[in-house]
Specification:
There is one protein chain. With 286 residues, the chain is of the alpha/beta class. The protein has one domain: 3-Layer(aba) Sandwich (Alkaline Phosphatase, subunit A). The chain is built from 11 helices and 12 strands. The strands form 3 sheets. Strands 7-6-8-3-9-10-4-11 form an 8-stranded mixed beta sheet, with helices on both faces. It has a two-stranded antiparallel sheet with strand order 1-2. β1 (2-5) and β2 form a beta hairpin. α4 packs parallel to α10 (253-264). The radius of gyration is 17 Å and the shape is globular. The N and C termini lie far apart (53 Å). The model is unreliable at 1-40 (pLDDT under 50).
């Protein structure tokens, strides 16, 4: 039986949906686009996903505001929908799969993790609070914030506890793609903006100190969904020497996936195929 953390820190039992997979594929099937990436050199991509803040709420954090001043900010970025899970699926497959809740849905094998593995691109997803695998860990871990476990109803070996992050990031072989899901307090879901901001102030500098980031790497910091009527989301593109510091272009989580896949040199999945990859914010002044 699967378990997942629910709001407020309680643990609830989750059963895989009995709805046929075809019934949840109401959005375009996330098949790769035929054209490959145009990224000229191998690079490292880091992603941190925070929780439940509109643009104005997220940028109120002191450290977060500092990052926004120093790097590139998408000022017209939107979440795809509500609640959390379909946004996480959009970020990692280019589709919500018709999912409209945070329950477990047995989706076909695939998604970004599988795509990177097939392409020989090293990756790891670090889950804070995960201590008993993808499906049996308790609070502050939340299965709904671990999209990689939904594809094929499996827990890939690349999904590891966040306790391994410091060791991996200090080593010589940092994965090309690093995904970080904080626990339900540190991501801002159950705790204040100040608590989430303090967690970022401890974690982000560790990434920015690595040669993996310094030598052409990029860190995407985003929130899953906004709390206002526009579903506005703060997304910061963090790389050295940004050419511009703000972009008012219309972006969303499919844009994020497109940017990730372009940087890693793999074809775009699903709706990312037609999304803008935030090219303006990815440009470097040098």
């Amino acid at each position: 039986m699967l378990t997942a953390a629910a709001c407020g820190g309680q643990s609830s039992k989750v059963q895989p949906t009995q709805t046929p997979v075809a019934a949840v594929q109401t959005s375009p099937s996330p098949l790769p686009e035929p054209s490959p990436s145009t990224s000229p050199i191998p690079s490292h991509v880091f992603v941190i996903v925070m929780e439940n803040r509109s643009y104005s709420e997220a940028i109120a954090g002191r450290y977060t505001a500092q990052l926004a001043r120093q790097y590139g900010v998408a000022t017209n970025y939107r979440g795809i929908t509500h609640p959390s899970l379909p946004n996480y699926l959009a970020m990692t497959s280019g589709s919500t799969w018709g999912v409209t809740d945070d329950g477990f849905h047995a989706l076909p094998a695939g998604g970004l993790g599988s795509q990177l593995t097939s392409a020989g691109v090293s990756w790891r997803a670090y889950m804070e609070g995960m201590n008993n695998g993808c499906f049996n860990s308790r609070y502050p871990y939340a299965l709904k914030h671990n999209p990689f476990a939904y594809y094929g109803s499996a827990c890939p070996a690349q999904i590891v506890p966040f306790t391994q992050f410091a060791l991996d990031i200090a080593g010589p072989d940092v994965p090309r793609f690093v995904w970080i899901t904080p626990g339900l307090c540190n991501d801002g879901h159950d705790c204040s903006t100040a608590v989430a901001d303090a967690w970022l102030a401890r974690t982000v500098p560790t990434i920015l100190a690595t040669s993996a980031w310094k030598e052409g790497g990029v860190l995407f910091l985003t929130w899953d969904e906004g709390e206002d009527s526009a579903n506005s989301v703060l997304t910061i593109v963090i790389h050295q020497d940004p050419k511009i510091h703000t972009s008012g272009a219309a972006y969303d989580h499919y844009s994020l996936l497109a940017a990730i896949e372009d940087e890693l040199g793999v074809a775009r999945l699903g709706a990312a195929g037609k999304a803008s990859p935030m090219t303006d914010l990815m440009e470097r002044s040098g």
